[in-house]
Amino acid sequence: MHVLIVGSGISGLRLADLLSDTDVTFNIIEARDRIGGRVLTETPSNENYFDLGPTWFWPEKEPKIVDLIEELQLSTIEQYNNGQSLLELSDNNPVKFIKATEVNSYCKRIEGGVNALVQAIYQRIPTINIDLNTRATAIKRNEDQTFTVTAVNNRTEGERTYDADAVVFTLPPRLLFENIDFTPELPETVKVDLLNKPTWMGAQAKAVVTYNQPFWRKDELSGNVISWQGPLREIYDVTTPNGDSALFGFFGLAPADRKRETLASIEDKVVNQLVRLFGEEARDYKAFYYKDWSQDDYTVTPGDTLNIESFPTYGQPPAYIDNVYFAGTEYDAKNGGHLEGALASAEQTFNNLTHQSMTKER
User: Fold this and answer.
1) Which of 88, 117, 154, 291 is most buried, most CB within 10 Å of its CB?
2) Which residues, by range, are in coiled-coil regions (predicted)?
3) 293 located within any domain
């Protein structure tokens, strides 16, 4: 049995990792020029690593990522929560102090950033099986029940095809619906389901500001902030143990408003907010990192640029046809949106594939 995996994010890589220990062969195609998908870690040095994609996991309720981190012998960092957190409601309201654990408790980060997890998985996969800069555009089921996937090279615009006994799409649901031509056509129930699953954090942008010292800690502040004034809605301390100190934030500023700004103006607004919250020391920063996921064509569709008002309903869509699978964090009903969901979805797809392979051999 030969499997084509479309996408090399956490789900695609973990699935390939699991398949590497079986008789099932596989290829991965990835539209980006790098692996990792929505995992994006800025690593200016070995001691400094700042995640602009997924950042945390919750050990008490996410066993799959805990087990995998242990298996890969990666180290973790307790999220810093000592001291008080800040609550900023508006211009007319003074900043209030709240307990740090009320903001972001019981979570951990991965030493080296989440990209350390990506690279550790990647090291266990035969690299000859991965084609980067290769964007899937269509899938067709053949008369012999195999599949042909058409893909375009992003650099040359040249087309090529991949043949497989099974195909696993790990793209976000809306991106999948908008960019892949299915033959036979997707049923209406599947189309509606995919369109109703927004890309997790697709409307978001993230920023990291680094410093020589975590100066906020000397004032007994955790670095955690909830702000309705913005531009950052949430702020957290993401200081690395042996490197720079840093504050990380999610934006309250809408995608359309961010798009009208220059990178320099975004940076200026973020730094001014940190000065307002933590004092003039916040102006003496080392570096500014920024990623607007709403402008990433390999992550979102135009429909994803609206902020999610409530937690979406994630999970598998209705059945399409045998041997076409959907894997990724949005396809996991229990932990959709988290790294745990991406891993759980990959493992479930692996179980389905290997069961299908055994059935076929009989």
Assistant:
1) 117
2) none
3) no
Domain count, the chain: 1
pTM (2 d.p.):
0.94
In 3D, which of 18, 29, 24, 22 has the Cα closest to residue 3?
A: 24
- pLDDT tens by residue, the chain, 362 residues: 999 999 999 999 999 999 999 999 999 999 999 999 999 999 998 899 999 999 999 999 999 999 999 999 999 999 999 999 999 887 666 677 777 555 566 899 999 999 999 999 999 998 788 999 999 999 999 999 999 999 999 999 999 999 999 999 999 999 999 999 999 999 999 999 999 999 998 999 999 999 999 999 999 999 999 999 999 999 999 999 999 999 999 999 999 999 999 999 999 999 999 999 999 999 999 999 999 999 999 999 988 877 666 678 999 999 899 999 999 999 999 999 999 999 999 999 999 999 876 666 55
In a domain, residue 99? The reply is: no
Is residue 279, in this structure, part of any structural domain at all? no
Judge whether 84 lies within some domain: no
The whole-angstrom separation of Cα 248 and Cα 67 is 27
Domain of residue 138: give its range: 1-40+115-199+304-361
